[in-house]
Amino acid sequence: MAKFKSSTVAVPEVSATPGHVAVIMDGNGRWARRRFLPRVAGHHRGVEAVREMVKACLDRGISYLTLFAFSSENWRRPEEEVTLLMQLFVRSLRGEVSRLNQNGVRLRIIGDLSRFDAKLQALIRSAEELTAHNDRLTLTVAANYGGRWDILQAVNRMAAEHPDRLGLWREEDLAPYLSMAYAPEPDLFIRTGGEERISNFLLWQLAYTEFYFTETVWPDFGAAALDEAIQSYRKRERRFGRTSEQLLANSPMTGATVALGDSAATAAEPELADGKRLYA
Asked: Where does Mg(2+) bind (predicted)?
């Protein structure tokens, strides 16, 4: 069964820091074009930005980070670019999985993986198995993923297992079959690069998520930019169908001011048990 309930079924806990951040990493090509570089250079810099984002989430106590790396529609891009993206995906998995494991990060890959070659599928399984017991941060990478595909595959699997319940299904019946049944719904959705749409990403899961759009392209999105997004998130009133008065009456934070301040951006980087810097 799904570990977390839908926000339309039960009101989730809300805290000053989002527990789950989902990101559409947009703008790699524009970053490269502005510097008169090939598009692939932007994708390489985008991988470095992922590394920085993982570290920033660890430093801020964010438990889940979900990144939209390659949509099911991205196969429509030029064949040369798709090939380069697949090669970069393979190199990134090989190069980063050990680092992720050392820092307590669990890696999950969601999407229709059947379209990837057998070598890449085996690499994905190996990376997931290596990090399966880590619990400091769950990093989910959506690859060949689409929100409509996710809902459709969940319905098909549920119908195959419970054909006798046709017409009787509820939200909580479908939830265990979704790709991210292991995670709470995102609290904060970020899209970089100036576009303001969700592009078939987590259509079911983003029902009550707070959206944050920024002109900053992904290769330039670092810890300071994440703090700006969190500041914006903290100014939102997450009602989940309730009134403002109900929120005030039920909130343990009534009368208190929650602010990011300078500490999150300037605090000394935590150390691991062996004295090494976090995500070194």
From this structure: 26, 210
